[in-house]
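Self-study notes.
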Amino acid sequence: MMLPKEVTPDGTHGPFEMANVAAAVIDAKGSVIGWTGAAERLLGYGAAEVLDRSAAILLAQSEDASRAAEVAEECGSRESWGGLVGARHRDGRRLEVGLRVTAMSDTDGRRAWLVSAIDVSKAPTWAVSEEVLEGFLTRSPLGMAVLSPDLRYVWMNDTLERYGGVPRNERLGRRMSDSLPGLNTEVLEAQMRRVLETGVPIIDFEYRGWTWADPHQEHAYSTSFFRLDAPGGNPLGVCYMGMDVTDRWRARERLALLSEASACIGGTLNVMRTAQELADFSVPRLADFVSVDLLEAVLHGHEPGSGSADSVYLVRRAGQQSIHEGCPESVIATGDSIDAPRSSPYFESMVNGTAVLEPFLDPATSAWIAEDPARARSIADFGMHSVMWVPLAVRGTVLGVATFIRMEHPQPFEEDDLLLAEELVSRAAVWVENARRYTREHAAALALQRSLLPQGLNGGTAMEVASRYLPADARQGVGGDWFDVIQLSGARVALVVGDVVGHGLNAAATMGRLRTAVQTLADMDLPPDELLAHLDDLVIRLTEEKGGNELTEESDDEPIATAVLGATCLYAVYDPVTQLCTMARAGHPPPAVVTPGGKVTFPDLPAGPPLGLGSLPFESAEMSLPEGSLIALYTDGLIENSNQDIDVGLSRLSDVLAQSELPSEELCSAVVNNLLTGPQTDDVALLLARPHALGADRVASWDLPTDPAIVASARELAVRQLLGWGLEDLVMTTELVVSELVTNAIRHGTAPVRLRMIRHDKLITEVFDASNTSPRMGHARTTDEGGRGLFLVAQLTRRWGTRYTPAGKIIWAEQDLPGRVGNRGR
């Protein structure tokens, strides 16, 4: 080991003043002339082995001999020398020893040196030489300083000098605030005063700021303070040690930023809104201006890359934000399409799916800027100097590009900024993809809902109707409540409203099943109570089918079965000839009826169980609805919620419906606006109907004897009535229809027989008889003389059918009035 450089002795020898320190005396020739027992114990050599021999044998390396001579020469003019040296033990081991060399003289003027040595490995830590300590403090990677009690610098190491960027001689004797204007020195000095007062160290105190070493960049530092005390306990000053933790701070800031982004971006399942949230969040945290552009396909919920080759890279501005109000530096408005130069880094990023960083944006060297004069002017006018283009990509599929630009921020983007932007954009891309998928599924759900609900309500001339449908999940737009208006035979109109359990697609699918079933059963002209009984049987079968597949099907089917079981329904049939309305309900709230005078009542209909329980029968009730009445059918979501019980809801509904003089559409809006004042927790369906009676001038009826000869008279009566109604064009067809229907009733039915004709929005011909036999359309052979009656009726009329009454049956046929076009046959 090379002998260490000389250090200036400070007069304090520490361990060398202790007893039994190893000692030897070396003469001017370098020979050992004195050897102590402690020296023998330290190095293992006995006196006889070293006396009168060169001291060089005690050094670990022979080349140290020349250095030893230099030390001896220096000691000739100085009192002593101290330092560390590598010595060799007798068994060959290397020992690190601390030496103190002191010059000696005898009376004859002969020179010698007293060498004292200790084993550094066994010495206390304060035995380390001053040179080692000085080197440790000066060249430590930690910045260190000692300040006086009045907080003036008295010492600092090289690292701290480098951190501050101010020469040491300009800081010694001065306060922090005199040379470090970029730091909050008041806070730092307050920490040091507290340490001086309490003696309690402060560990890892973090702060940020700039120094003259890097005046354009904020740095973070971690500093610890402790008090220096004299032997008597009086404070001599305060020492602090600090280190630059900018990298750690930036990493922590990035993590905090990404965590904050999770709370600020993706809160809505809207593609455009999510893109705007990314832009809003990034300014000014990361850039001065940010734009987010998405592929046209993504905005419409389609798969990226779908469509024609020309449309693959159609891009629109989905969001943008700037430190300047209104984004004046943007040359593209939100929602507009973008035609970026194919040679630009923007297009490169989108095509290749890789981020591009231009720390220094120079229009002179970026040829693509010249291809877009508007963008070139914006770059020059606003001083855009650094750009990042980062693709929004999910599973390798690019959805768009985010552009980050710095203008007033003096620092160019660095690789760390690009890494942060990539992580931020990659998370946003997931939220955009979720929003895109939701957009697609939402469109499918809305299409399903539109296909399941009535496309247009038509009550004909017998019923004026208006409706509202509000799903609880307004974002998805689908639910399980439903309503319908069905035109029946005899100018009658059926009103239906129902409610299935739950919300969303399962409920909507269940609603579609029930609505289709009701339309089919209504077409059979069943009375309301019988229709609900058949609907109840259907629900029971559907529930049993789901229960039978419980072991083999996925649990996703369970909500469908749950939605079917317990569904409610109200079915009402209005006859404009008699002005009677027959109603039955399956666990559904009763309708509201408004009389022509404005009085609102809720008829006490037989309740009936919800569908699928099969425990109680359904009963019908009949009431009169004169001209000027109003009937309202609704689901329980309109009148009942978590903050309002059903009685309060019915009272509020009654108050609004009392304004029945309002037009139907306005009255619908008034009901919804007055009753749905808080958060909606259930689907809502509302159906308002104003019945219109058919006057006596539109209905003609004749009782006929059961004599085949009466058929001719029946034809004459019908023709006379048609001429009175001005329907000459229908005389020929109606004669045939009346002839065939009356003949069938007389031939196959039971008295009494009645012929009725109704001039509605269609011409309706009805023949009643007291039998319950079902008519059947025959298929006569070419040689048969009969059997073609009902076949001809079916071919010549819009539709025909049979409905049963408590007293028998009615065979009916409908014809379009002149000037109206309808579908003939069934």
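Second protein, same conventions, sequence then structure:
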Amino acid sequence: MIDRKQRVALACAGLAFFSASTLAEVQTATLENATLTIDTDTNDFTVRALHNNSFQVTYLTDSEGTPYANLPSMALPEKTLSAVSKNIAGDIELVATETTVTLKFNNIAAHVDKATHAISYAVNGKVVAKEQGGLSISENGVSLSFTLDENEKLYGGGQRVLGMDRRGHSMPLYNKAHYGYTTSSNQMYYGLSAVMSSKNYSVLFDNTASGTLDIGKTNSDELLFSAQGGRASYIMVLGESLEDTVTSTVAVTGKQPLPPRWLLGNFASRFGYKSQQQVMDVVDQFNQQDIPVDAVVLDLYWFGKDIKGHMGNLSWDKEAFPEPEAMIASLREQDVKTVLITEPFILTTSKQWDSATSANALATKDDGTPYTFDFYFGNTGLVDVFSENGQNWFWQYYEKLAAQGVAGWWGDLGEPEVHPDDIQHMWQSTKVSGAEVHNAYGHQWAKTVYNNLTALQPNTRPFVLMRSGFLGSQRFGMVPWTGDVSRSWGGLKPQVELALQMSVFGLAYTHSDLGGFAGGETFDAELYTRWLQFGTFSPVFRPHAQDNIAPEPIFHADPVKSIARDFIKLRYKMLPYNYSLAIENSLTGMPLMRPLAMAFNEDKWFEDANSYMWGDAFLVSPVTEPNKSAWQTSLPEGVWFDFFSDTKYQGGQMVEYPLTQENFPVWVKAGAFVPMVESVSRTEAYSAKAFTMHYWHDESVSASEYTFYDDDGVNPNTVEKGLYSALHFTATTTKNGTLELILHSDGSYIGMPKTREVTYVVHGLSKKPRSASVNDKAADMRWDDEKKTLSVTFLSDYQQEVVVTLAK
């Protein structure tokens, strides 16, 4: 074991570019590859240029000049600091003046002041961010301070219910459950030690310890991170727009691996299914009632008949689930996946307590004995997911369950829900306290599950559902949810804010328990319906709740059931669009749910949490209040169409959307393309061999474009090896009003259709076009006079350009 106080990693190799005068605190600066090492008369530190317009700053000594032992980075992928730095080394420039040392990389720069060694950051020559106190190491821990401009707005902190602009708030950096939250929460399941500014930069404090994030509350002009020890390092990401900053931030911390396509289907889930027969009966009801379903999620009753006393069994309760393998096989034959919950707490009363202690798999006291404590579920120890012993012991149970056919993994209570500050973990042969690594526990747990699954099942995309993690957890396939939300209108209201705050930092599959989870004594049909309608345009569709009120639509009467059925089927019809968003996210880091500020005027829309973009086509404004006959929504500039009626709206104003039970405030922007298919009962039945491409036409949009991504739906190497097709659609309107729609494709994958049947449905036309042609040959067109839509069908061969012309 290494004593952390004695450990140091300081390498100052390379050519010294200058020696500072006696008045300057910076004494030498050396550049090697992409890393600038600064020696001062106090702190020594490095400034490393990373890819995607970002820098990493790491302190090597404290203010006394004593070597400081940094824990490894959690925010950055392991390969970032080696391969990437070498690849960009040739693009790095070091410039020294009398007052500054500047590290330049493309259009960005980090200026180090010689006298104070404070760093300022510039984009295209303009300074956009400045350290105030910068990094600091003291006996109280590690802190990071930046100056805030007067009018600056900031996202940040991850899951909180505080409003989109988090400025003026101070919040704990300590992942903690907030059961039954509604319209206000300063501390929740998944915090992020990061901010993203309206000035188009983000600061990622790469520290996993318990701490605080103060965004101008104590001092209005100061952004301050503080932590109880841990890593003294941060990452600065610089962009030219909010979209640029978002995608660069995600690229630096690691893009989400492409999930299994069934993630986009409907989940049957509750707290919880208590027997094998109940599981089979529920799936049968979905089948009989013609409601699509792709997965069934088993909560803690799979390993014990009671809530308390069984956590840590990690094996089936054979009285309630006598033949689990037969159950899983039967579900698999129906193309329904089985997802199981696991928790990191091993109760002293559980079946595996002796096994865990003998394997040294648990976090310990100072004397090396298991640390035990009481919490809601019983007296317990905690799996040490940081140690090799803990990882190996925990993984054996996942491996056994995977052999039985379990397809998805749900990690719960991973904050961890109870985590004493003085509990000891063993991380890379180093003892660390619970306080130092608290916020990384879920991250490390997801990493273990994801890496082992990819090794065990190399041809399968892992599904890892967890409610807590750290910066960069998305690179381990993590699918977060927003915890035990109140089953109330107050619980529904903050869900857009929560998802957007996570999505801009890479956690693109953040979603809620649809319908609400906690409480609720009577069934609120309108609340349930509106939440599921919102879920249709969310990353994951998973109704989940305490089962005093059924979360599944199959147990509710019409019209609730029929409305839910229609929206679930709509979600399956939208599989081409939604799955294309998933591929785009893995390729570029673009979130599925996007703040309006990413697409429209950033200053005006930065704080908006009432609406969001679902991809680049849809604007969604969830109904979060009861008994409304109309819903007020502020539309950005441009022309918008009601998705359900094709009613045209002029943007740049507040509009009144007429509500019924069956509709929902969703608009499509003029010029948008949306691919859809006929509804299927399982995602396994989905195929893009034949699809309908909807296009919303308006003369105000003279040109638009869209890329539809498609692959085989299962290959885990789709993105890495380019095993996908990209179908590029463009629309142009000539001066005489002729509409030209062009399709050409790139890329391929094994099993790709050689020919696709494509049907254009053009919305927004005032009258039937005079003629239609496909590649200059007359084509049949079908005009719907009531809906004012035109349809044209054609066959598209691989990489053949197809031009459809509609003459006015």
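Instructor comment on the second fold: The first helix runs from residue 83 to 88.
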